[in-house]
Amino acid sequence: MNTPKLRAAIVGSTGYGGVELIRLLASHPYVDVTSVISSSSAGSPIAEGFPHLTEIRADKLDDVDPALVSEKADVVFLATPHGVSMKLAPQYLEAGLKVIDLSGDFRLKNIEEYRQWYKHEPASQADVDRAVYGMCEIFGDEVEGQSFISNPGCFVTSAVLALYPAVKAGWIDPDSIIIDAKTGVSGAGRGLNLSSHFSEINENFKAYKINKHQHTPEIEQSLARAAGRPVAVTFTTHLVPMTRGIMSTIYASQQERRSAADFVELYRQFYEGRKFVRIRPNGQWPATKEVWGSNYCDIGFNVDERTGRVTVISVIDNLVKGAAGQAIQNLNLVMGWDETLGLQFTPVYP
Ligand SMILES: NC(=O)C1=CN([C@@H]2O[C@H](COP(=O)(O)OP(=O)(O)OC[C@H]3O[C@@H](n4cnc5c(N)ncnc54)[C@H](OP(=O)(O)O)[C@@H]3O)[C@@H](O)[C@H]2O)C=CC1
Ligand SMILES: CC(=O)N[C@@H](CCC(=O)OP(=O)(O)O)C(=O)O
Question: Any idea which UniProt keywords this protein has (predicted)?
């Protein structure tokens, strides 16, 4: 007898995260996308705005109505802006759906930090407490069987996967960490704004939100768990003229001098059996094209003989491992399935 597939709905289907969920879930063996949802274009065929999606089964955009969604689906992905997810998630949970939220609304356990960094009224502490933070390779054990997952931020995924093992092992001084990150423009979503306008971004390279980026406390929240004490990092983001991809170049002082080969060995042991974190051999560093369109996070190391500082380079595709891919990986963990289901593809190259 064939087991029926899990039925999935996607809110925010007309945004970059939503469209990426549709693309990836189309090849998931145990999931059917039965509802694609739009708050602004319900009733229209999704292929009207996205002709490359002509073949999907749930072709007409549905309304966000929780009663309707709970009739059509078992799990709902929220690929919605922050401020919107905090209103929708409790309603879908109440309607009996599992919820996987891609926004920042439920990631910070201290809601005052949310107020400070997002400059927005937070979700209630009770709702934040219900959400399980799904950084799969690190806290994935906490996800199985849960109904409400908060998917990590894109920069956070790249930075924390690159730092957690070294902080946990006590190899680097947590107070010395500097994360210099670059992102492609799709990280800003599909909406139009001046900073992602072609002539503003093309042949340009700019820093933004210096010491004010909303992912700073989220990075610190996970590193504090590794260090067993509060941690403060320096984090600078840059917008670069590419569509997808994040590279975090990270610097830290070592507690004792170790070689890059030692770091390779430590990280290989830490991530043993986790297919989506690939540690480069000593002497090799990853580039964003080497993970493009895939759920991989690739990490490489160098140690400066003169200063003793370690440089860690980490790359992801912001829309896959940084958003839709990790959200599906979280669904796999929730369901007790192999975490790689529906995500086993090779990066697009060149
Ligand atoms: N882009 C990225 O690389 C990453 C994004 N994220 C997070 O994922 C979420 C989605 O991001 P992204 O896809 O880039 O954003 P987009 O701006 O591309 O899409 C967001 C979608 O949300 C829908 N929406 C807006 N307001 C409402 C509302 N009131 N009710 C229901 N739906 C609404 C819109 O669709 P419609 O008008 O059709 O309803 C819109 O298409 C955000 O929280 C973002 O921070 C996280 C990691 C990486
Ligand atoms: C290029 C760009 O603007 N990127 C966004 C990425 C953040 C994001 O996607 O939002 P979450 O906080 O939900 O992860 C930014 O830097 O704010």
Answer: Amino-acid biosynthesis, Arginine biosynthesis, Cytoplasm, NADP, Oxidoreductase
